[in-house]
Amino acid sequence: MTDTQAKPLAGQIALVTGASRGIGAATAKALAAAGAHVILVARKVKALEEVEDAIHAGGGTSTIAPVDLTEPDAITRLANAIAGRWQALDIMVLAAAYLPELTPASQVEPKQFNQALLTNVVATQALIAGFDPLLRRAEAGKIVGLTSSVAAAPRPYWGAYGATKAAFENLLATYAAEVEKLAPLRVAIVDPGATRTEMRARAYPGEDPASLKGPEVVAERLVALLAGGFEGLHRERIG
């Protein structure tokens, strides 16, 4: 196996939100194993350090960036700090998400709904705005946004989360159309499907986690997608 095959993302800079656990953490580790230098973004420092330790133990490299994406100007400060260190951003994986309590649409708790809107929608637009210049400077910049089937197929009690994910998808699809002919920058919207995560366990407390695929399965597919490249707006569901 050649170095390019073993490390298809060597020399690339990747940023992963929600990198402290679940699919975000697994994807960060997989990107580092594929040769990328990964910027780990999440709120909890200790959890980020654990992911970084795992990356370094595997021979990869990373930088932790403890950030609450819902804080005013936090993403602007993060983007400025990264722009001060690197000339371009090759990959941005949007894995951070907030799941409000599952309730009827008429009983959605306002504070939780607002948190979901801030995390899943407002922060997404701020990330697009903050990192657009760096992504455009990459040879072939790529954004991957992780979504949910409830964005397109409404389900009882999932209205608050589904509404935010529908807006999330709309923002990414709009951005993809806007940049397609202006920069070698592509966007993928990926539904990971049923996966063994903490969020899934909260949504389905009676489900046997052993019946679900692990986050590393999703991470492996995302790395393959990013290494192989794609044209236009890419959508897929990982079974």
Overview of this protein structure:
The structure is a single chain. The mean pLDDT is 96. This protein has eight helices and seven strands. The protein has a single domain (3-237), classed as NAD(P)-binding Rossmann-like Domain (Rossmann fold, 3-Layer(aba) Sandwich). By secondary structure, it is an alpha/beta fold. A seven-stranded parallel beta sheet has the order 3-2-1-4-5-6-7, with helices on both faces.
Short description:
By secondary structure, this protein is α/β, with parallel strands linked by helices.
CATH architecture: 3-Layer(aba) Sandwich
- Estimate the strand proportion: 15-25%
| End-to-end C-alpha gap | 28 Å
**CATH fourth-tier homologous superfamily:** NAD(P)-binding Rossmann-like Domain
Structural class label: alpha/beta
- Rounded mean pLDDT is 96
SSE ordering: HEHEHEHEHEHEHHE
Major β-sheet strand ordering: 3-2-1-4-5-6-7
Overall strand count: 7
Q: Share of helix among residues?
A: 40-55%
Outline the low-pLDDT stretches. Answer: none
State the CATH class: Alpha Beta
Shape descriptor: globular
Task: State Rg.
Answer: 17 Å
CATH topology: Rossmann fold
Largest sheet: 7 strands, parallel
Please give the domain count. 1
